Amino acid sequence: MLKYTGNITGAGVLLTACATVLATGVAMTTPLSAHEDHGRFSAGKPGDPNKPARIVEVRMFEGSGKMGFEPARIEVRRGEQVRFVLHNHGEEDHEFILATVAENRKHAEVMKKHPDMEHDDPNGKRILPSGSGELIWKFTKRGEFEFACLIPGHYEKGMFGRIIVK
Ligand SMILES: [Cu+2]
User: Fold this and answer.
1) Other C-beta atoms within 10 Å of 64: how many?
2) What is the Å distance from ligand 1's center to 3 Cα?
3) Residues with CB under 5 A from ligand 1 (ion)
4) Can you tell me the distance from the alpha carbon of 8 to that of 114, in angstroms, rounded to the nearest whole number?
5) How far is the CA of 35 from the centre of ligand 1 (A)?
6) Residue 154 Cα to ligand 1 middle (Å)
7) Largest CA distance in the chain
8) d(CA 88, CA 8)
9) How much distance in Å is there from the Cα of 159 to the middle of ligand 1?
10) Cβ(86)–Cβ(123) below 8 Å
11) Contact (Cβ atoms closer than 8 angstroms) between residue 95 and residue 149
């Protein structure tokens, strides 16, 4: 068991299907206790489906040159577990990847080189057109995080949103 007794800097490592994405340069100033972080996910940890969760419905859409999520800003409390219910209202695949802004931007660059990469990870899901899916997450750290679709071209068209953990 790793134990962090002080602040860590640049230790948020996102391990997904593309393990090449490192969160170097991501400064985290929140002290972490031993059970809150295993160094794997920056935005908290995978949720427990057997525990209560607040349900947040998120719509994915596209149209008139834009793509996005509705809502694009979600506030949660530290320690809160959220069941994201994702609905793809578009005609293309979309993804919901939960990480820091810096991680998602790096991850998006990797996706440009590997456009056929698909995600089905604790912090990321791909949803087919007219499909839906769920992602349960426990937010263990205060701060600002991001959910984004990293399919090439989608992020640039506005497909990202913020999660504020208070
Ligand atoms: Cu998308």
Assistant:
1) 5
2) 37
3) 94, 149, 151, 154, 159
4) 31
5) 33
6) 5
7) 50
8) 37
9) 6
10) no
11) yes
**Spacing, Cα 14 to ligand 1 middle (Å):** 20
Sign of CA dihedral 22, 61, 72, 46: negative
Which two tokens mark 157? 């068209």
Mean pLDDT of the 109-120 span: 87
How does DSSP assign 99-120, residue by residue? Answer: E-HHHHHHHHHHHHH-TT---E
Hunting for tokens 């820091």 — which residue is that? 100
The span from the CA of 156 to the CA of 153, in Å, is 5
By DSSP bridging, strand 73-76 and strand 94-99 are unpaired
The CB-side HSE value for 60 (13 A sphere, CA atoms) comes to 33
Tokens standing for residue 120: 């089905």
Residues 49-108: tens digit of each pLDDT? 999 999 999 999 998 889 999 999 999 999 999 999 999 999 999 999 999 999 999 999
Of 8, 6, 7, 20, the closest CA to residue 103 belongs to 20
pLDDT per position as a tens digit, 19-54: 333 333 333 433 433 333 344 688 899 999 999 999
Cα distances (Å, whole numbers) of residue 94 to 13, 26, 68, 69, 131? 23, 26, 10, 10, 10
Amino acid letter, residue 69 = F
Length of the chain: 166
